[in-house]
Amino acid sequence: MLEAAGAPVHRADLTGALRQGPPGPRAQVPPGPGTLVVHVNGPMLPWALRALGGSAVRGKRVLAFWNWELPRLPADWTRGYRFAHGILAATRFVADAVGRPGGPPVQVVAYPVPEPDPAPMTRAGLGLPQDALLFLLVFDAASSVERKNPLGAVRAHRAAFGDRADRVLLLKTYNTGMGGAAWREVVAACAGAPNIRIIDAEMSRAEVWGLMRLCDAFVSLHRAEGVGLSLLEAMRLARPVIATGWSGNMDFMDAESALLVGCRMVPARDGRGTYGAARADWAEPDAAEAAAGLRRLAQDAALRARLGYAGRRRVQGLGMAACGEAALRAIGLAAEVTRGPAPPPPAAP
How far apart are CA 112 and CA 121, in angstroms? Predict the structure, then answer.
C-alpha cells in the first residue's frame, strides 16, 4: 500500500529466517538512513533485525507493525519494545493492547481492502442448493479454532434452523491438521446436519472472493479479532455481516453496518496455549442472540440489503492508495516523536 501512495519500497522476506514457513524471495535492504517497517510481532522482533543484518538496520528508524487479538500481551512481547522506535497497529483495539507508558509511540494504520476479484464460481459447482439462503464463515484453523469459534456458529445455526434444507451454513477452512481437539469438536457438531457443509482446502484469493459473492450473509461469532480481514472483504462485497460486537472489527463496524451480537467476557483459553498465556479475557457471544440474528437475516431481505449497502459504504475508503497515504502520514508523525539511532540487532543467542 505504500507503493500505491508513491513511496519507494524495498522488500525483505523473513519467513524462512524466522522458521515460519519455506523461504521466499529476499530482497537486499540498502544500507544507510531510512525507515524499516517490520511486520514481526514483539517476541521475534530482535531476531528479525538480526536476520536483516547490521548494515540493513544501522542508521534507520524501526517501526514494528504488530498484530494481537487480546487486550493484554503475553510477557514475552516485552523483549520487542527496546528495538522499536515506533509501533504501527491496524486497529485501535490492537493499539490499545500494545501501547504502554513510556514505550514507543503507537499509530493506527488500517489495512487496505483490495479490489474484489471473484473467481467465476457457482453453487452447482460446489454442490450447494441453488435456492437456499447461504451463510458463510471463513477461517484458518491454524489461527486458533477456539478464537474463531466456528462451533458457536454451528450451534447458533442449528438452534435457528434445525435441519431446514433452505438454510445452509458453509464453513470454509484449511490447516485443520493444526486445529486439534477444538476442530474435532466442530466436525462432531456438524455430523448428521444436512444443511451444514465444510470446505477444508486452501483456495486462491479469487476463489475465496467467489465464495463470498455466492453467499447471502457472512457469519463471525469470533471470541477475538485483531482486525477481521474476512469481515472487511465480505463488507466490501456488500454482503451483510453478523458478528460478535467486540475487538478489532469494531473499528469498521457499528449497529448500522452489521448485525452485532452481544457477548460476555470470559478468560481466554485455547488448546495450544497461545492466548491463555496473556492472562486476558475474550468474548463469549450470546448464543440465543446469535440464533435470533440469523433468523432475522433469513426472514428479512430488506435488512440484508440495507446492512450490505451500509457495510460497503463503511469500508469503501480503505482502498490501497488511501491506506498507503494514511500510513505515510503515520510514519511521518512517528518520525517527529522518535529520537536517536536505531538499536543494533541482538547478538546470536
Answer: 25
Give the tens place of pLDDT for each residue, 226-248.
999 999 999 999 999 999 999 99
Nearest to 195 by CA among 168, 213, 162: 168
Q: Which residues pair with 198 in a beta bridge?
A: 171
Top-confidence range, 12-16, 35-39, 341-345: 35-39
Helix (H, G, I), strand (E, B) or coil at 266: strand
Q: E strands within the chain?
A: 34-38, 60-66, 86-89, 106-108, 133-138, 167-173, 196-200, 217-220, 241-244, 259-261, 263-267, 281-285
Coil, strand or helix at 291: helix
Instruction: Place 314 in a pLDDT band, splitting at 50, 70 and 90.
Output: very high
Dist CA 168 CA 243 (whole Å): 17
Angle between helices 287-299 and 150-161 (to 10 degrees): 60
Q: Helices H, strands E: what count in the chain?
A: 12, 12
How far from 231 is each of 33, 49, 202, 247, CA to CA, in Å?
Answer: 38, 32, 18, 13
140-154 per-residue burial string, b: 16 or more CB within 10 A, e: under 16:
bbeebbbbbbbbbbb
Q: Which amino acid is at 229?
A: L
Nearest 5°: phi and psi at 178? -100, 5
Cβ-contact 78, 44 below 8 angstroms: no
Kindly provide the residue ranges of all beta strands, DSSP E only, lying in 221-310, ordered along the sequence: 241-244, 259-261, 263-267, 281-285
Q: Which three cell numbers stand for residue 287?
A: 448464543
pLDDT in tens, 139-189: 999 989 999 999 999 999 999 999 999 999 999 999 999 899 999 999 999
Q: Do residues 85 and 338 lie in contact, with contact meaning Cβ atoms separated by under 8 Å?
A: yes
Rg, Å, the chain Cα set: 21
> Kindly report the CA angle at 44 between 41 and 48, in degrees rounded to 5?
105
Residue with cell 435470533: 292
pLDDT of residue 234: 97
Q: Which residues are CB-contacts of 167 (< 8 A; sequence separation ≥ 6)?
A: 132, 133, 135, 157, 160, 161, 195, 298
Residue 105 has pLDDT above 70, yes or no: yes
